[in-house]
Amino acid sequence: MRIxxxxxxxxxxxxxxxxxRGHGLWRQLQPIVSRQWAEWSPVYAWAIEHPxxxxxxxxxxxxxxxxxxxxxxYFQFAxxxxxxxxxxxxxxxxxxxxxxxxxxxxxLTHLHIDHDGGLAHFPASRVLADSDEIARTAGMSGxxxxxxxxxxxxxxxxxxxxxxxxxxGPFARSARITAAGDxxxxxxxxxxxxxxxxxxxxxxxxIMLAGDASYLETAMLAGTVDxxxxxxxxxxxxxxxxxxxxxxxxxIYLPTHDPKSGERLSERRAVTTAGHGTGGDAxx
Length: 284
Ligand SMILES: [Zn+2]
Hints:
Strand content: 15-25%
Number of helices: 9
Distance between the termini: 29 Å
Bound molecules: zinc ion
């Protein structure tokens, strides 16, 4: 199956958001109060050329994110976007010969602003997301959590993922995205309580489009929780599940913001876990 890594501009966040420091409220405050910015990170969206139609996983960021509500401390102090309109997912897909009508399904790992930022390019697609994640965006609490549902296109009405009690590797539930059963959503709670990842089962390989389950493959391998996950234990359990998958099956792990995700996909370079040899590309 052909999978495209589409970089929709760049985002800059604090080092303490990428790899959390300390615990509890202290950890969650560091992305705002720390002065140590990380390097710019990519914002990837993914397009899967599937016989049942193109599937887009996350829609990346949009040029509108260069302006953010100033009242919110996270937006004011903790994040910067660098993206032009032609870098959004729609124009880049058109360059690949993929028009909006070809995209049958869009799956959102979660509804943070750099994952739903390109929704406007898919007015004719079925959009899938977790129902509790959708609910969390509403009202004042959603605004405090940093969701921007007021920027969604008017037509946006996502379908809830249809979870089954069917295990997929270490994951207790799964939701089929394709009738063939080769593109599957799995729960990866942590970064948000209902965060999901999408796994493409391609021959003997698992390609895991991991959203923000971790920002880096190295953080997943080390079990380091990020600076924004509300529930540290849930996040750690998810990272352990992902390591189990990687130990059992050849897995290419592709977080949205890992600078190496693009090359790992093009080289189909799998995670090497302790059981499978050395650290591979486990450089910072
Ligand atoms: Zn996120």
